[in-house]
Amino acid sequence: MAQVEPINAFDDNYIWAIRDTDKKQVWVVDPGDAEPVLSYLAQHDATLCGILITHHHWDHTNGVAELTHVFPNTNVYGPQNSKFKGITHALRNGDSLTVFEHTFSVLTTPGHTLDHICYCNDVLCFTGDTLFSAGCGRLFEGSAEQMWHSFKLFSQFNDNTLIYCTHEYSAANLAFAIAVEPDNNDIKAHIEWVTTQRKNNLPSLPTRFGIERKINPFLRSDLPHMLHHLPHDVTVNNLTPWHNFAALRLWKDQF
Ligand SMILES: [Zn+2]
Q1: Is 33 annotated as a binding residue?
Q2: Where does Zn(2+) 1 bind (predicted)?
Q3: What is the CATH number of domain 2-254?
Q4: I want to staple 161 with a disulfide (CB 3.0 to 4.6 A). Which of 88, 155, 157, 183 is the partner?
Q5: Where are the domains positioned within the chain?
Q6: How do residues 106-127 score in pLDDT, each as one tens digit?
Q7: C-alpha 238 – ligand 1 centre gap (Å)
């Protein structure tokens, strides 16, 4: 039976470990640093057997070379169009792969970067820097239109699906979410929960689509009231279906 556990890295990254406790084998998602992964493996007397990469950014990939040096049989899965050159198994939209008892579908989710992919099934979903709790990744390479389409893909997953994203950004994202929707009681309740978790030095993750559908402004962007508190200096001059999403992303950039 596999369990998913966080490995802390840098200031606010989580490298997610998928560990089969019987086989003593581990897969990791987005190892930006090898050292904390090696410590985790030693602590659990486990072997690394696979790596999943969501996108090319250094804080998601810099540990791969050392980890595959120490564990040469480790397969590295990642997007076929990535700038990161350490991928041994290139993936496209709709591909699937199996990690212990889990079979994941590959979703291409451009926006944060052009190569970004997510690994999802109905139980758990690794969203990298695409979907954060109460937020979404910055648009470094892609457009608001692309990210809006990427977010639409998450509608296929049920409310109980667990979401494992890469950064502990929940508190800052919720501060923005409550500015967008000052009367949203689900956001208020979640702020209290996240505050308690962080006070106790516990992650605010994983989250679930059921919660995110109530609190995440970017999953809720199509609702008609989402721009009621938009600052006057944030303007998006188009009448596209992703107009609200684009305006919220611009607002968040300056928030
Ligand atoms: Zn990134």
Answers
A1: no
A2: 55, 57, 112, 129
A3: 3.60.15.10
A4: 157
A5: 2-254
A6: 999 999 999 999 999 999 999 9
A7: 27
